[in-house]
From TrEMBL:
The lineage of its organism: Eukaryota, Metazoa, Ecdysozoa, Arthropoda, Hexapoda. This is GM20170. Belongs to the cytochrome P450 family. CDD domains: CYP6-like. It is a peripheral membrane protein. It is found in: Endoplasmic reticulum membrane; Microsome membrane. Keywords: Endoplasmic reticulum, Heme, Iron, Membrane, Metal-binding, Microsome, Monooxygenase, Oxidoreductase. It comes from the Eukaryota. Heme binds at C384. InterPro entries: Cyt_P450, Cyt_P450_CS, Cyt_P450_E_grp-I, Cyt_P450_sf, Insect_CytP450_Detox. GO terms for molecular function: heme binding; iron ion binding; monooxygenase activity; oxidoreductase activity, acting on paired donors, with incorporation or reduction of molecular oxygen. Its cofactor is heme. One of its GO terms (cellular component) is endoplasmic reticulum membrane.
Amino acid sequence: MGSLTGVQTSRSFSDIWMDYYNKFRGTGPFAGFYWFQRPGILVLDISLAKLILIKEFNKFTDRGFYHNTEDDPLSGQLFLLDGQKWKSMRSKLSSTFTSAMEKSPIVEVKDILARFTTDVIGTCAFGIECSSLKDPEAEFRVMGRRAIFEQRHGPIGIAFINSFQNLARRLHMKITLEEAEHFFLRIVRETVAFREENNIRRNDFMDQLIDLKNSPLTKSESGESVNLTIEEMAAQAFVFFGAGFETSSTTMGFALYELAQHQDIQDRVREECQEVIGKCNGEITYESMKDMVYLDQVISETLRLYTVLPVLNRECLEDYEVPGHPKYVIKKGMPVLIPCGAMHRDEKLYANPNTFNPDNFSPERVKERDSVEWLPFGDGPRNCIGMRFGQMQARIGLAFLINKFKFSVCDQTTIPIVYSKKTFLISSETGIFLKVERV
């Protein structure tokens, strides 16, 4: 497992990045790190992170993740693609992304929020009504949850695939859960067929994909124009699901977790929500979200403390001499890891970094700060394509809940939080239990 020894058993991924960053920071621009069996680097200097993500992006465009579209169609999603395929798909999808609480006094909010985001994404990406909030065992919710959290391989299989990607492709190894692959392919096929047969347009994400299927708009590696296949459409719909589902629901859950512990901050958010919603005749609108400045600060601070994807992966495309450090050379083909979650808790970047403080993101402080000091969505041309969609989903969900409910800690609330050791993403191991009361 290289530097990842103990992952999924005794250590969470977040703990690994934090431990290595704290151990080596200040020793140089980067430290050596084994990404499974591949020698790579762990970035320690925020200025080097900026070069990799933005200024020298052309030398680090790929993420270097395993994908095998011939055997595993859903691995052809935007997050995993590299080279010309990523560039072409990104440019075509960008415009699309731009745009049950009272049953018990003690509620596990993480699951309810995940069901909310599942319903939103089911409507926006697939054009279907999922009804996950009403039925926790709705098919879309169950398969979506399995696709995100269940892995096809154990730690050894994951290590093999990431260490020997070309061999894994020759062995026809897949990473997507088979049942999830069949489900998402079926949903997309049925949706496309129904819309085309009945001449239906909703001007949503699926319509954008149908347009790409029917028009040669994307570029292959050879530069020729090609149409999207059903398999490629399913892969991009799947990344829409991943981009909106986990980031939004996890962020909302951790935001409520912190607000339950800081009632003064929760009261201030509620006052802002009630004032803004009151001006809009009691409705939450897209335009009104822009006026919820303090709520946005709360979300940004939550993403700093609980960075859902705590490390950014890149791959060096050519030998790269680090500016100002001639003896430091990143070799071609090396994995490059930027531990953004650990950087977010560096006292050199944020005073009292382990304290929840939305004022870290007041307009004045944001202006003073370099953009790469806050990286929950990455930065540069390969930042998260679903950033705005995910943030808006979190704003709307939190505004609705805080306007109507008060959240408090209870005996079942785990303080401090314990992270799951099973997933690359930040997640609570035991759920987030809070006391919920109507305002």
